[in-house]
């Protein structure tokens, strides 16, 4: 099939969005047992990745890093706080801003989580260069889609 033929195709397997959806579900299913051992969901893991990388940060910065809205991040933080992995407090310099940081237990979990990326590579059979190439292409797709004039605002 030529490029012109697949551009307007309504075949399920020709849809970029379906390939992304199927890949996301497959990769998430590989993550699930690894994260179950840590007592985390995938979105909670992402929150902790940001905190482990950046340290204490505002909810606004955390939401931006995860490309999520405040309404989605807030319940994640409440759950992580209820199990003692993060703490939230109002910023002294700006009462409107809420700071988030890992607790000692959250930092300890970092050590246990250190094997997750390698286990994912092993489970998928992808080499590090393949993963890097895929990641770059997906980020480029995300950027182009974000900048698309056809994107609803």
Automatic annotation (TrEMBL):
Protein name (record): MarR family transcriptional regulator
Keywords per UniProt: Cytoplasm, DNA-binding, Transcription, Transcription regulation
Location of the protein in the cell: Cytoplasm
Molecular-function GO terms, alphabetical: DNA binding; DNA-binding transcription factor activity
Source organism, top-level taxon: Bacteria
An example Gene Ontology CC term for this record: cytoplasm
PANTHER family per UniProt: ORGANIC HYDROPEROXIDE RESISTANCE TRANSCRIPTIONAL REGULATOR, TRANSCRIPTIONAL REGULATOR, MARR FAMILY
PROSITE patterns tied to this protein: HTH_MARR_2
Keyword field contains Transcription: yes
GO biological process entries: response to stress
HTH marR-type domain residues: 13-143
CDD domains to which the protein is assigned, alphabetical: HTH_ARSR
InterPro entries: ArsR-like_HTH (IPR011991), HTH_MarR-typ (IPR000835), MarR/SlyA-like (IPR039422), Transc_reg_Sar_Rot_HTH (IPR055166), WH-like_DNA-bd_sf (IPR036388), WH_DNA-bd_sf (IPR036390)
